[in-house]
Design goal:
The structure is a homotetramer.
Chain A lengths: L14 E4 L1 H4 L5 H15 L6 E4 L46 H9 L3 E7 L2 E2 H6 L10 H4 E2 L10 E4 L3 H17 L3 E5 L14 H14 L4 E4 L9 H7 L2 E3 L8 H14 L8 E3 L7 E2 L7 E2 L4 H14 L3 E3 L8 H7 L2 H9 L1 E8 L3 E8 L2 E8 L5 E6 L10 E3 L4 E2 L5 E2 L2 E6 L4 E6 L1
Chain lengths: 430, 430, 430, 430
């Protein structure tokens, strides 16, 4: 470390669960807490800890009318224009308690609690022209009428002024009072936020300061991507994780495209700073989108996904309903070698990539992880000459099975492994 | 005419006065009527007839706070969300009378009355969720929360639905009841209305139908430009005039650039359809922008401007304060040859153009207009060989002075005229 | 006509045959003359007259090596760097006679002869540094080493200098001496000729002057498209026809897309100036591309194609091998009503267009043509209210069958016709 | 190092002299050797070692006709189409000896020798269709006729085929035989090599392999920029240095813009891999461009330039004529603290940047370099709080003067220094 990064609230990639992939905009208190309970019982010991309530928690009618977002939704806000959980969906939020009760329960399980917000101030706060705490101005003075999200009409952007900062301070003070540990800020990290802005740098920076001003450690996660690599320095200055693609779903094309994005961002993985490959659409997903299904990924694709996310040190945020975890999916989330690579690996580095295959490595206690990917549509032998590595290889273990690799696959230091279409192998070299 | 164009309310380019160039967003009833009075007395007999009240007439505080548009302005609207004139600025609008009184007075002068509107429905109407006349829906059902103007925050776009049409019908019925003859619709004709729309075609078409449904003839003017030439057919189907550039001001670079735009649009001038070079920033302008001045154009540039607008058959909308008309400017507006070219000329055609000069012609009763422009920065002899024209030339008259051209300037049918820098000559060939 | 267009060598859309669609880069003297013979016998009386030899006639090995264009092909050129027909393919060109013999034979049939050229000067002429006729410079002095075609490596662009003009003069003098009546110039009219040029304006203008300087009337045809509508004025100044799309083939998507292009260009059809929808890929095509086939268009699509090309007044250049003309295709090419619309119609005008249908009209001797198109994928009733037209309708004839339309299809002036998917109806209104 | 980088021929940023900034395309053997002599005598002991002959050394008439590059220049090539030094400019190259003699002399001075090449194969080799060594094909088989440089017409790109590789092998074998230590490849690293290519990846990779195949260590330098950050991984795989901007000259706007580029590329500085800020246009430059001058940079700007290049670890390639080195410029090139930062510093990191200032740091033996830049147009106090650094600061030295910083400038660990407009301060923290 050359300097004291203020963001070092997380030295390792955050691991947790997020409500979006399964529950869309409609998750409820019961669903949050039941998923937290499964995490406590089955996943916590492997390092999983964040329980994140995604978008629209202040919208009482979220998910009605067969749309994800209703135009001009009547959000629940307090007298200062700050969003509050919709009480019909989160009963413990009654009487202005917000997410305090849920956060307390999740903390009692030994877990951490996160929430999603859209950048900005609610249109409803602007209609009502609510006062901004700590200032003598009102919502209309801090809202930017020309800065609107293109896909959700709830908010106006906040102007980069001292009063705008105060508005952000006011909401993060509220989140701190609830005990929030993680905030995913949406509509802020993509490459075309406005026609002439690569991303919402000014609002991200205000949010960074608002977290610092709150006095509580909170992980700052930016969404959606693709983030602009030219702005990596700004991302690292202000945030802990930022999406490197648009929304990721259970579609091979999107998974294959992630390899190019990881290649681009590999030098930007460091303690406190994690380029984010997005949630894991595994197990039972899509329910809240009226498209409930088991993930469309094949088992080989699921291994590929976990192998890439782990060696690249992406945050790991499970998207499927934990209450319906099957054995295979549970195995994906609890493989100790993979999770160790994700949490303890260092310097993820792409060694090779073309249209048919990719090879990655990272360091671990003097040893190495080596991930071999078959990106083609048919079974394929992937070879790698370990003499290219700057190490002496004594032992080779299959990370997924934790068994030593058959010597027949190694010849003079050259590893050759048959990998199924869209599949991956993860190896520990010692 | 191959077909009955429904827009044939104006067979000749509209001529009139518009409040913008001088009064910006702040014009008042007194200023409107005083300008109308001057038009009646000095200009009407030359064909000038429209008096147009430009932007922000429903905003009581327009022009305060040293900005042109105030964020979240509190517009005057009726119970159906329709903008009404701000009574502090337009006293005759009291008691819901709208612009009826002003229109009546202007009609009584033998003139016509026009207004400006932004496309869409006021944000305030959406906040109040006003009912939409003739439907059982309300403002939030017809407003598109993602369709906002990038420079004025007053409105939301209207959705292209039967109920959206009813909203537009309701406002044009109101304008018809006032006696409006001309409507300039803003934020609708430029090439990048939305990231992926070349212009607001759907809303233009709804407005066309709303005018037809109103039962009153109204000229439809679209703003701002540049309009997209690929959409010329749609413009001609729906509108009477549409801007071919962004806002035009008293700047030689903008005037010179207009030549390229006229070249592009020349085939699209026809009865009822007039590509629009924008208002004439002549005489006293800029007052409402806190930048009052006499036009920055030199006299030669002013002649060039009028010559181009007239031979191209652009609408002629004077922008300067008519109460302060000096003799030179009055002369520009009342030259009978120029106005006849504008109103009666046919088939405006560019004969030549390069960086230094341009030549245009148009037909008039078997004769021709010929306009020679010196676009260079120094005096220059412009030559033109009349044998290129498909006519026998017997007599050559200077349109500006109405005198026959000195034969020394003509040799074997080749006209040679010294023209000052940025200047123009207009000739009648018979 | 406001001015004497120097290009008025063709007042009506050229009709003819071009070797490309069938013979690709490989046509021979025998094939040219045999096709001309069929034209003389079967088509001439309907107005077909041009026989055009398309690309690569100076390349002896054209079509070998299974590619359309060979890199660094060894073109046949004369001592002045001018392309000459490859004698192995065009035996009559021996002894430097060029295309004279073929032109004479075609003229003797009462037909006209056309050739294709790439813009520029052969790379081989530059390698040999041939002298430029009428100058004391050589090929390297007039060639622009940075101006190359992106898909055919035979040529360098010619610099816009007096010597460059002389080179173009030298080749058009040669063509005039052969008796060429029509020149299709390639790699010159598309929208991205160079990164920063919308099209090759300077070279087009040199070619225009070279034709004028040659003293022989030649039709100038520019290829490929899409031409840029902003440059329509330049096209009309210099050329007789110019492509409004990229290469057109027997694919419904391309045919459907042509409607949008005709909409854009409709105001630019005038005597001597014909926006060009490209050749007719009808009958037997593709042989020279190693993909011989009968056209993939259905019969309804073929009617649609001919109806659009005819009412729009596109040049008509048959692409199929005339020696293999079947009765249906012959009928398409010899329908007198359609050809009259193409040759004699005036003011082609689109009346309506959406994703499912289009309606066009044009004038003929006080009457009208009306073309109704079903652009959807299923049979559909197309309706049109003739009261929209500015005429009194007394008689309605089906142009394809030349029979009066059943009155059951007309009600109060509203025409309703069932048209098959992708089909068209052409009507004469009198 | 996670893997054995094959490019580790240079672990530190190359330091040397390049003929371009002063001699343009026209440098001669005498000028090369005289500059080498000055380097040996005055600069070698500070680490300067490469003497690089830039573009057009095979062109006998380079620099004549008042242009930098002559069209269709008659390059000197050998029978295999490989460029050879023009003997009139490099007499020692007579009898096919190439650069061997010059390289020997430079090696004898204890220095290293570098050359510039354009990617590709000479057009002249293609005209003559020279054989390709080690194959049975010829130049026309490996040249890509569509791949040409946009500003120099000497070459065609080489196809990515086994025979294309052999051509590159043949030229690098020749360079190895001459004793070349450094190759700057031009027209290969900018972001728009072709319309749809971000850069010439395939040819860079062939060149990488050709160097490996040559058996001689050569530094590979890619030009011009801006290189595309998305392709950083490919750059690092294949090259040692690559330009991160277009050509850099003595213009403050270009120098200021370099800060943004260094910000973007900072994570990509590592042993063997150096993002390249381009040559140092200091001292006497421009002679060969018919614009001889002393650098236009002020002395403060020159310090800023050296400070940024040194802390960022850019390669240092002096561009001015070493024979005319004045004391000030010599001082810039021989400051031991600055050169040590460039050669031995680690992890260059931007700490702050806005329109007015920038702060950078890097590591050195547990200590730190700290560079403070005033990017504004007036004198300005730049402050930096050393508590932001992850170190204990005991001693603060001005790197340029090598004196301890006056304690008046430090208060509680906060450094405040007045820096002139466009100036810089470089500090050593221990």
């Amino acid at each position: 470390m050359l300097f004291k990064n203020k963001n070092l609230v997380v030295l390792k990639p955050p691991m947790g669960w997020n409500s979006w992939d399964c529950f869309a905009a409609n998750v409820t208190e019961v669903e949050l807490l039941e998923n937290a309970k499964v995490m406590e019982e089955k996943l916590k010991k492997f390092g999983w800890e964040y329980v994140v309530c995604d978008i629209q928690w202040s919208e009482p009618l979220a998910g009605t009318e067969n749309v994800t977002y209703r135009d001009f939704a009547d959000l629940t806000i307090d007298e200062y224009g700050r969003q509050m959980p919709a009480v019909n969906r989160f009963p413990s939020a009654a009487d202005g308690k917000g997410f305090k009760d849920i956060a307390d329960k999740i903390h009692a399980m030994g877990l951490k609690f996160g929430i999603h917000i859209m950048r900005g101030i609610p249109r409803k706060a602007v209609e009502l022209n609510c006062p901004v705490i700590g200032t003598d101005v009102r919502a209309r003075d801090v809202a930017d009428p020309f800065s609107i999200c293109q896909w959700n009409g709830d908010m106006y952007g906040v102007k980069d002024t001292p009063e705008g900062q105060k508005y952000y301070d006011s909401i993060f003070a509220l989140y701190a009072s609830w005990g929030v540990d993680f905030v995913k800020v949406d509509d802020i990290a993509h490459e075309h936020l406005y026609p002439d802005h690569p991303y919402g740098e000014a609002e991200v920076h205000m949010i960074r300061k608002a977290i610092d001003n709150s006095g509580r450690d909170m992980v700052l996660s930016l969404s959606p991507g693709p983030a602009v690599i030219e702005k990596a320095w700004q991302m690292e200055r202000d945030a802990n994780m930022w999406r490197i693609t648009d929304d990721f779903w259970d579609d091979w094309k999107l998974l294959k495209a992630m390899f190019e994005r990881c290649e681009v961002w590999q030098k930007h993985v460091s303690p406190g700073c994690f380029p984010d490959c997005d949630m894991l659409p595994l197990g039972r997903i899509g329910t809240g989108f009226r498209a409930g299904r088991d993930t469309n990924f094949t088992r080989d694709e699921q291994k590929t996904l976990m192998t890439l996310w782990c060696i690249f040190k992406s945050p790991l945020m499970m998207g499927g309903d934990l209450r319906e975890l099957d054995e295979f999916t549970l195995g994906l989330l609890t493989n100790e070698n993979l999770i160790r690579a994700n949490q303890e690996g260092a310097h993820p580095t792409e060694l090779a990539r073309d249209d048919d295959h990719a090879v990655w490595t990272s360091e671990i206690d003097g040893g190495r992880y080596l991930a071999l990917f078959n990106l083609s549509d048919s079974e394929k032998e992937i070879t790698f000459d370990t003499s290219e590595l700057d190490m002496q290889v004594n032992k080779i273990t299959d990370a997924w099975t934790n068994k030593e690799i058959n010597q027949a696959n190694i010849n003079n230091g050259v590893i050759k492994i048959e990998i199924p279409a869209h599949g991956a192998e993860m190896i520990v070299l010692q």
